[in-house]
Amino acid sequence: MGESATETPSPAAPPASAAADAQSVSKNVPDYVKQFLGLLDGEHKPEWTVSVAGRILNKRSSLVKLLFYDLIGEGVKVQVMADAKNSGLSEPEFAKLHASIKRGDIVGVQGFPGKSKKGELSIFPTHFQVLSPCLHMLPRQKGSRCKEGRDTYDEYDCWWSNCKTFHNSPQ
Fold this sequence. Notes:
- With 171 residues, this protein is of the alpha+beta class.
- The protein has 2 domains: 4-136, CATH 2.40.50.140; 139-171.
- The protein is 21% helix and 39% strand.
- The chain is built from 4 helices and 8 strands.
- The chain has a 5-stranded mixed β-barrel with strand order 2-3-4-6-5. A two-stranded antiparallel ribbon has the order 7-8.
């Protein structure tokens, strides 16, 4: 499934035709998180262009023009902070696009790295694309913290473990 991320310094936002797709994604999400974790709270790096692909684990909205997604790749989560003003879309186009995105979809996101004011590492997308829709809804999350301090999602972890076991088993 190739959940991953790439980054290249860029003086300006990428053109709309530079879609975040499977071919432009070459660095995994854990490496992305490791590279940008040192940003300060509220700091943004608009001079960088970052492409990330992963599965939508959670979706929530603050306003009609601001949506938050939890994007997971290789078991690591990063927040996507989709704002209508950065998208290059009109408000109705932005609303239509994000209304169609569901939990479990695999998406490609192209934008710039930063941290939210609350300190959560995020990607601020300038382009958002569904790469593969989820045809069977993921189980609901029942979150808790394990002794190592990471979030656990009982049914999701079970599903993800079975998925990894299946893909790693010898043919």
